[in-house]
Amino acid sequence: MLLNCSLNGASFHRPIRSSHVTAYANSSTARSSADSTMAAAPNPVRVAAAQMTSINDIASNFSTCSRLVEEAVSAGAKMICLPENFSYVGQKSGDSLLIAEPLDGPIMQRYCSLARECGIWLSLGGFQEKGPDVARLRNTHVIIDDAGNIRSTYSKIHLFDVDVPGGAVYKESSFTEPGKDIAAVDSPIGRLGLTVCYDLRFPELYQQLRFHHDAQVILVPSAFTPVTGQAHWEVIASAQAGKHSEKRESYGETLIIDPWGTVVGRLPDRQSTGITIADIDFSLIDSVRGKMPIAKHRKPFDFWRPTPL
């Protein structure tokens, strides 16, 4: 199951539209934050997940994101998750290199101002961050708080180098530098584990976030192709959708799924722009983890090391 922002293991009440977050249950108390306001998230707390069709126009995409953020604020959400490539999708591979900027550049600073002015946390999944290598950017997931400060970043570790059956050949590594570090951060909606799109195929990353970084909510902002999205997409996810250009199209299907695998939020149109809303119930997370104590049952990583013959 997937979610551009997928919540697996958390509970959601009466979603309104569509999103991108995955929540993983944890029987232990949420890890305390350096910021005392993060120490105990309200129960329940509302989150929004967004779906959109980004194009090769930074200003137009910002306008769309601003509208979705305002909708989330009006719905009472404390955080909104925007999809991978929220700020820009080029017409051809490598176009993103031409617009890549550092995190203190004007593009990201506009989103910091948006968060501060609207008083809401932002999950910005898949920003084209300019790094030291001029030939390659970083695909960076950025968390901004409601004061407009960047709280955490994660650079996508697993790059999409895939020959899609019946479709195009993708080589993300040709213009993207892979990340090396796992990232988790406290927020008003719980302790977040940060990932991006294709990371979803690699469960060991999520095991690390769940069991070693105390993640309660896993964010998976995405821009799946129609072929891979149709085959593998079911979660809480904020997703790209529709035709970005003549050469690029995304699957869409923003979802919110509860800890038992029930779809509780879904946009009525897989290709539309909008948001879905859900309330994360941390008491249900604790209940599920208590009744199904995976943390106690799982084997340590050393258990799976091959033994000499």
TrEMBL record:
Any Pfam family: CN_hydrolase
Alphabetical keyword list: Hydrolase
CDD domains: nit
Keyword Hydrolase: yes
SUPFAM superfamilies associated with the record: Carbon-nitrogen hydrolase
Domain spans labelled CN hydrolase: 45-282
InterPro entries, alphabetized: C-N_Hydrolase, C-N_Hydrolase_sf, Nit1/2_C-N_Hydrolase
Protein name: CN hydrolase domain-containing protein
Source lineage: Eukaryota, Viridiplantae, Streptophyta, Embryophyta, Tracheophyta
